[in-house]
Automatic annotation (TrEMBL), chain A:
The keyword Amino-acid biosynthesis does not apply. The keyword Protein biosynthesis does not apply. This is Multiple sugar transport system permease protein/trehalose/maltose transport system permease protein. One of its GO terms (biological process) is transmembrane transport. Pfam families: BPD_transp_1 (PF00528). Residues 74-266 form the ABC transmembrane type-1 domain. GO terms for cellular component: plasma membrane. Keywords: Cell membrane, Membrane, Sugar transport, Transmembrane, Transmembrane helix, Transport. It is a multi-pass membrane protein. The lineage of its organism: Bacteria, Bacillati, Bacillota, Bacilli, Bacillales.
From TrEMBL, chain B:
This is Carbohydrate ABC transporter membrane protein 1, CUT1 family. Belongs to the binding-protein-dependent transport system permease family. It comes from the Bacteria. It comes from Paenibacillus typhae. Residues 69-282 form the ABC transmembrane type-1 domain.
Amino acid sequence: MTNQNPRPLTLTLFMWGLALIVAFLILFPLWWIFISSITPSGELFSTPIKYWPDHPTLASYRYLIENVGLLPKIWDTAIIVGLSILIGMVVSVMAAFSFARFRTRGLALAIGFLLASMLIPDVVTARPLYDFLRSVHLYDTYTGLIILYISGILPFTILILQNYLNDVPVSIEESAAIDGCGFFQSLIYVTVPLLRPALATVCIVNFITCLNNFFTPLFYSNGISVLSTAITQLPLRDNMYAVPWDLVSAMGWIIILPIILFVAIFQRQIMEGIMAGGVKG
Amino acid sequence: MYASRKYLAIAWILVLPALIIRVFTTIYPIIETFRISLYEVKLLQGIREFVGFDNFIQLFQDSKVITSMGFTVIFVVGSMIGHIVLGIALALILNMKFAGQKILRTIVLLPWAMPMVVIAMASKWAFNNDYGLINDFVRWFNPDFNLDWLIHTNTARFAVIAVDLWKDLPFFAILVLAGLQFISAEMYEAAKIDGAGPIRSFISITLPMLSRNILVLSIFFTMWRITSFDIVYAMTSGGPGESTALIAYRVTTEAFTNLNTGYAASIAVVLFLVMALLSWLSMSAAKRVDY
């Protein structure tokens, strides 16, 4: 690239300046949450804010483990999110395969129905769904929550997988059939492995969607407590603001830290997933 | 290969689990919502009485519902203007070719990946007058600044919109960025040869090429804003008074706290019809925009 002018230094500085402002606006609040979580609760009431505490402590975290039952909540969250992603994936692959390979009027209607149901907001169905779950004894059960979490990720997942499958030639499955492969054998051993990149992408996006789900556990569970609802139910402090900020920040950071690591590791797949779907579940 | 009759049965068996789950979690309850919106239900007294459209007549005279609708409009319009203007700016920043591009994109993904409820809980403290992050930051520049954001109507509303932007603007920008990357470099080169500067090519190439993409994105983002719930639940609980109670928050309060399930259903029906109408209108508008 000898014929290209070297970029003027001012332009480079300008770009870095803009980038630093954006990074600061996003990272500084997160830093503040972290600092608050390791600050003794007495020191939190200081102006100006100390961006490094005089006596850093893990007391808030210990309190969460000993008195708030943090570990069982992490366990509940892991079970619900993990099973929802797994079962949701199986259900979605089946449906996406059917939609991509069989073209009948009835199935076209079924796709239309699935997509249209995406337009129904949680809040419009909340109360009848709550009453329904109670009547079938699924309220506040793992099964009930997992079904609802799956329901939330199904349309997005089916859409992405179906688009991907449309580009996978049927001829691969045909040659598998000629080689004596049965229908389900061919689905499991031929088609699913071909889907792997798309599966990875939806898995990652669904993980974030499920982990961030707040509406479902808030209204359809009570005893089972996942992390996203637990942060709103911490024991109140008797300060005039009724915000247990020491505990909220610690709990917040416990939720945020894995997400930061996760995003850093899977940045490329997440970008692809977001751009492919343009939908947030 | 899959044309035979035997396969048609298999096809339906494969889609059945997905269909059953969606029917029971969305279709059945929304039909119920429409049905009970015509009833007066008092769960505690065990009253369930058909009242026709009375709930609907009542809700348009209920000052709480009207306040909620008003703030929802302000929230959606304010937030969307911010999303579009700042979102395009941020997308351009993310598109800059410089050494920090990859790490900047990773940082920008973070707010999207975090639960709104965590951000909203933190915001409750961040907007506190004495010990919050926001005023501490303002005091770097103006040491005498004092304002308790969340106890005054206008500043509380502003704060809610600002937090919503912090959380979702980066996501919007990434989707605009996806659109930006479809514009071919040759167009910019051709414009450069014709003597267009960077501002001219932004106005004459980038904006028109992005318009359809941004319109479609805005439809989705508007729909999500109309049903926003987490942010005010965790950040303001609808306060001060009822001034930041978004319509979704109003529906759940009526349904789960006040136990007026019939009345709550009627508000939900209005909400749903408004959304359906809006998405139909904007989808047909989006079809017409063709650059």
